[in-house]
Write a structure and sequence with these properties.
The chain is mainly α. It has one domain (28-151): Serine Threonine Protein Phosphatase 5, Tetratricopeptide repeat (Alpha Horseshoe). Helix content is 59%, strand content 4%. The chain is built from nine helices and two strands, in the order H-H-H-E-E-H-H-H-H-H-H. The protein has a two-stranded antiparallel ribbon with strand order 1-2.
Amino acid sequence: MIRREFFVLTLGAAAAAAQQKRPDKGPPLPAEMVREFVVAAHANLEKTRSMLEQQPALVNSVWDWGGGDFETGLGGAGHMGNREIALFLLEKGARMELFAAAMLGKLDVVKSAVTAFPNLINTPGPHGIPLIAHARKGGAEAAEVLTYIESLGVK
């Protein structure tokens, strides 16, 4: 039987070691800056680019619109069908999101995710917008994704 004191000391030492490996992240980004960035990434490439040049950490920032409606800049570009902004954000290090992948026509990404986790086909994205709507916003580049989603019975 492991003694509790040993366990706590070991965990404490591991946490301290992990903290030493990470440089100080600094303070959280200002909330209004995050909101402004996410809004800009819906449709304004120049403002998105300018804000990211000033604060690169915005690339993966998340705004909570309330009630758990979380959105990144990539998420905003995704449901607006703004391919140019989405590709720019991905080039700058944004984390790929399933909904943006659908809009961008990344069939391999969508198919892999939905095969591994079938419930994702009905999981709502930012603002409750479904995956199929993102594929529709992708236009011709996302036609294969749209066909795939429809083949699963989603309307």
